[in-house]
Design goal:
The chain is mainly α and 72 residues long. It has one domain. The chain is built from 2 helices and 2 strands, in the order ααββ. The protein has a two-stranded antiparallel sheet with strand order 1-2. 0% of the residues are buried.
Length: 72
């Protein structure tokens, strides 16, 4: 499965979970919950945008340190 699809699925699951949790909250917690949910959604949107490009998926470069054999 491609990273973009995984992130999109995780975003949907997170929003659904947050919605169910919010229904069980009361008072100030219930009022603030949508703000927190929006932060989660925004973070997923940023992550999805980082990996999505017009013609597919682009992964960020992973720095690989030079190999240095251990002395025995």
């Amino acid at each position: 499965m491609q990273i973009q699809q995984v992130l999109t699925d995780q975003k949907a699951l997170t929003v659904a979970f947050a919605h169910e949790v919010t229904k069980k909250l009361s008072g100030a917690y219930r009022e603030k919950a949508p703000e927190l949910t929006d932060e989660f959604k925004d973070a997923f949107d940023v992550a999805i945008a980082e990996y999505a490009v017009a013609d597919g998926i682009q992964l960020p470069g992973i720095p690989i340190p030079p190999f240095v054999p251990k002395k025995v």
